[in-house]
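Support request from a user on the community tier.

User writes: "When I paste my structure tokens into the form, the page sometimes reloads and wipes my input. The last time it worked, I copied everything first. Here is what I submitted, just in case something in the input itself triggers the reload:"
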């Protein structure tokens, strides 16, 4: 069993040659430190979602690049001191690697193939600036809905059928009419129909989770938009239209990808799986207490162990092989797992969904690896950035927890700044946190100064100055990106350096 699991979990490690021995690799490199390489594309991705506070001074791009450099130097120092060897870090990076491979697949197979015309965007803008009022006929039964549709097709009036059905239910005809609806106010199945259906026209049968609807648009009202208004709205509605197409095509892509694989979960083994794990979950309540041990040789919570026989049972069968209970537990081990449930039935449903998501990503990742994505340089760069960030962040948490601040000293600084205009009680939390960050920042700089001479560092300032990066519209931190299938699970859009590198600027802005 161990050999089977090891075959599943062996990582694909690609070593990037030092640029000093391969000068033609420096063409798109913004920063090179030892084997750590940051390309122009990776820099732009990170910079585009980072908080503006890390981009200060006359050359904000260089300030930001220095923050990335400092993160690397701190992480290398910490690694030399034994940090970064715990299994939780390797599992987190394992998850990130899978996400990046899956995202690359979707970019090539779905995103890059989406085409949006100017006419589509214009139509979307105009839809968004209109309101519609509709009448509807509802049925829980498809057979009844089909009969009603046939009657409409043969000439019977919508109002007559609607009134008859409502009267049978003891409802007035007002119950079958909405007020004016804004675009996006109702679920997608209905929204897409009513905002494309001409006034007075009748829809086909619309299937929703609640049942079946037949709709008639009875009134439409529009805002008056100038051509400049429409042009101003283009970027917003292009994104709306893109996301709509992306999600629809992603679902179809997943279906076409997975259906031929013949994936089946063994019902008997799954029931045993649930009955075995639920008592463990119930005893511990928090998934943080459930430890998935290395290589998933056993599942252990406070001396509770699963037998080797059970771990070897085939839980999932597909055309080319099987996944055992142990295999599935391993894949759950690096995925953020929680079960906010109160009954074994809810637990089973939640576990079934989580296994489905894991299987989906396992097969997508395997396909990505076949295509060679595991050796993609941009994926490696981003994982390296995440590794530096996570190691530094954990160390900062440790420093923050262990550092005590002289409150009286900070209060004195506050009183000197505000005199008696603002009481210390009102600014105490902000002052103490900012001062603590400033003290930690000074300690980190000492490590950076000692560590920097130990590394070969190349900064391509010429390229950096030529990079076109988006202007920041606000100072409220990271812009989260939309990802396919709910990705990412546990990370922001791209790795960014720690805010601690802006601590001096923040503190100075407070006391000046």
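"...and here is what came back when it finally went through:"
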């Amino acid at each position: 069993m161990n050999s089977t699991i090891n075959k599943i979990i062996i990582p694909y490690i690609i070593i990037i040659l030092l640029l000093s021995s391969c000068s033609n690799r420096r063409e798109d490199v913004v920063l090179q430190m030892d084997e750590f390489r940051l390309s122009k594309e990776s820099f732009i991705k990170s910079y585009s979602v980072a908080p503006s506070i890390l981009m200060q001074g006359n050359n904000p791009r260089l300030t930001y690049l220095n923050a990335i450099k400092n993160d690397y130097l701190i992480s290398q120092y910490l690694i030399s001191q034994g940090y970064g060897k715990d299994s939780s870090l390797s599992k987190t990076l394992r998850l990130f690697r899978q996400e990046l491979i899956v995202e690359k697949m979707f970019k090539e197979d779905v995103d890059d193939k989406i085409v949006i015309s100017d006419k589509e965007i214009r139509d979307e803008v105009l839809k968004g600036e209109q309101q519609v009022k509709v009448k509807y006929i509802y049925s829980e039964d498809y057979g009844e809905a089909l009969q009603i549709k046939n009657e409409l097709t043969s000439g019977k009036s919508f109002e007559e059928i609607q009134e008859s059905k409502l009267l049978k239910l003891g409802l007035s005809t007002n119950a079958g009419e909405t007020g004016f609806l804004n675009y996006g106010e109702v679920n997608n199945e209905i929204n897409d129909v009513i905002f494309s259906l001409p006034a007075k026209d009748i829809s086909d049968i619309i299937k929703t989770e609640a049942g079946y609807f037949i709709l008639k648009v009875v009134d439409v009202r529009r805002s008056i938009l100038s051509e400049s208004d429409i042009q101003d709205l283009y970027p917003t509605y292009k994104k709306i239209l893109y996301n709509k197409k992306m999600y629809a095509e992603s679902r179809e892509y997943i279906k076409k990808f997975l259906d031929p694989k013949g994936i089946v979960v063994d019902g008997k083994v799954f029931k045993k799986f649930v009955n075995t794990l639920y008592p463990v979950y119930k005893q511990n309540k928090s998934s943080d207490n459930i430890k998935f041990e290395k290589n998933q040789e056993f599942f252990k919570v406070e001396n509770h162990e699963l037998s080797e026989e059970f771990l070897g049972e085939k839980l999932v069968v597909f055309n080319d092989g099987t996944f055992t209970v142990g295999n599935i537990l391993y894949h759950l081990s690096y995925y953020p797992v929680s079960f906010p449930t109160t009954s074994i039935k809810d637990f089973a449903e939640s576990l079934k969904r989580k296994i489905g998501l894991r299987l989906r990503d396992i097969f997508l990742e395997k396909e990505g690896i076949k295509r060679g994505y595991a050796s993609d340089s941009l994926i490696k760069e981003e994982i390296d950035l995440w590794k530096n960030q996570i190691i530094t962040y954990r160390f900062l948490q440790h420093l923050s927890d262990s550092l005590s601040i002289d409150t009286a000293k900070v209060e004195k600084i506050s009183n000197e700044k505000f005199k008696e205009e603002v009481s210390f009680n009102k600014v105490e939390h902000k002052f103490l946190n900012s001062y603590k960050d400033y003290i930690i920042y000074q300690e980190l700089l000492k490590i950076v100064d000692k560590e920097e001479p130990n590394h070969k560092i190349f900064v391509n300032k010429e390229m950096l100055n030529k990079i076109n990066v988006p202007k920041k519209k606000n100072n409220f931190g990271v812009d989260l990106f939309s990802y396919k299938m709910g990705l990412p699970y546990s990370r922001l859009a791209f790795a960014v350096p720690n805010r601690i590198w802006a601590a001096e600027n923040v503190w100075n802005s407070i006391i000046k």
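Agent notes: The reload is a front-end session timeout and is unrelated to the input. The CA atoms of residues 54 and 502 lie 6 Å apart. Residues 227-258 form the longest helix (32 residues). Escalated to web team.
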